């Protein structure tokens, strides 16, 4: 019996040694990978080409007036603009809300979520995508509220991606993008539906605004209108300025 026990004992010892070596190698590999990924640093922020406040006060027949942001719950990004534009010829006003965030915080807010929190259901039968000048996705058109109290909402955003760093590899670049959203700018236009008017004047304004918004974000900023899988991060309804 003793003659057979020796090789069995040695074999078990070898298996244990191999297991320790494998675990040690896996741990060392994990530590190397972690250091390699972290060495790339965070995804760089991309600034706007011009501050939001430089958005023209006049957009064709539309004349704008800045509206102070009094509720601090709306200050969730790095730059904000709240402005009402009025078209005297049409007797029509629209409200503009623009937010820019170096870390994509603006993308956590979307009309479908915010309006639901505000108790304003969507009339999905009139939802559509609006063609606007320039490359990129179309603008999303929504209508929220109830009969007699409808509100049109137009939504789009710009993604400001940094130039690829040639000093990092594709794995590091992917890790950067998983850890942090790129800088971005969200644009929303609000307009109450009027019984004696249709939505076409508002669409005209949105097209004009999209041209100026692209200049703020930069020529390389990517226009989109998709919704991220977001959740409500505060109980503030969307800012609604102007009206009537």
What is the CATH architecture annotation of the largest domain? 3-Layer(aba) Sandwich
Average pLDDT across residues? 80
What is the total domain count? 2
- Poorly predicted runs of 5 or more residues: 230-238
Description:
By secondary structure, this protein is an alpha+beta fold. Helices cover 30% and strands 25% of the residues. The protein has helices at residues 2-38, 111-117, 170-179, 200-217, and strands spanning 58-59, 62-66, 79-87, 92-101, 128-130, 139-146, 149-160, 183-192, 222-224. Strands 1, 2, 3, 4, 5, 6, 7, 8 and 9 form a 9-stranded antiparallel β-sheet that branches. A hairpin with a 2-residue loop joins strand 6 and strand 7. The longest helix is centred in the first third of the chain and has 37 residues, at 2-38. 28% of the residues are buried.
Topology of this protein?
Elements: H1 2-38, E1 58-59, E2 62-66, E3 79-87, E4 92-101, H2 111-117, E5 128-130, E6 139-146, E7 149-160, H3 170-179, E8 183-192, H4 200-217, E9 222-224
Antiparallel strand pairs: 1-2, 2-3, 3-4, 4-8, 5-6, 6-7, 7-8, 7-9
Overview features:
single chain, about 240 residues, alpha+beta, Protein Transport Mog1p, Chain A, 2 domains, nine-stranded antiparallel beta sheet, 9 strands
Give a nutshell description of this structure.
The protein has helices at residues 2-38, 111-117, 170-179, 200-217, and strands at residues 58-59, 62-66, 79-87, 92-101, 128-130, 139-146, 149-160, 183-192, 222-224.
